[in-house]
């Protein structure tokens, strides 16, 4: 079974980076799939459809997609129960970090190198 990739939060106030090793020490993390498949694309499309424009087309929509694709997480300001999520109360740097870790990694699949 795929264990996914766990990335610990390096943001100030939420984690710290060891200057010698580069390792991040934090209680906060997000786990993304180690490989992307067609069903991940379908999940992305479902989030876009369900949001019906309510999240706009920027950071909050990408964050909703990222959280739908996350395999596990412990994030500041975001309880584990999705019914209690209020993205307006999540710190923007956390949203942007999650988007970089998950959404941007997914989007790499859509870039095909030219020969």
List the helices and strands and how they pair.
Blueprint: E1 5-8, E2 16-17, E3 24-25, E4 29-32, H1 38-51, H2 59-69, E5 72-74, H3 92-107
Helix pairs in contact: 1-2, 2-3
Descriptive key words:
alpha+beta, three-stranded antiparallel β-sheet, two-stranded antiparallel sheet
**Overall structural domain count:** 1
Number of helices: 3
**Oligomeric nature of the chains:** single chain
**What's the mean pLDDT score?**
88
**Relative strand content:** 5-15%
Order of helices and strands: EEEEHHEH
Envelope shape: globular
Strand order, main sheet: write it out.
1-4-5
The CA-CA distance between the termini, in Å, is 34 Å
Instruction: State the helicity in percent bands.
Output: 25-40%
Poorly predicted ranges (pLDDT <50, ≥5 residues)?
none
Question: Main sheet?
Answer: 3 strands, antiparallel
Give me the secondary-structure category: alpha+beta
- Radius of gyration, in angstroms, nearest whole number: 15 Å
The count of strands amounts to 5
């Amino acid at each position: 079974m795929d264990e996914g990739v766990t990335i610990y939060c390096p943001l100030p106030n939420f984690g710290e980076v060891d200057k010698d090793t580069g390792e991040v020490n934090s209680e906060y993390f997000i786990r993304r799939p180690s490989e992307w498949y067609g069903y991940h694309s379908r999940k992305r499309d479902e989030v876009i459809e369900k949001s019906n424009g309510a999240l706009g087309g920027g950071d909050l929509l990408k964050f909703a997609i990222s959280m739908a694709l996350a395999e596990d997480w412990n994030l500041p300001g975001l309880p584990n129960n999705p019914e209690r999520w209020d993205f307006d109360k999540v710190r923007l740097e956390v949203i942007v970090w999650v988007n970089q870790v998950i959404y941007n990694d997914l989007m790499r699949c859509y870039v095909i190198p030219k020969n």
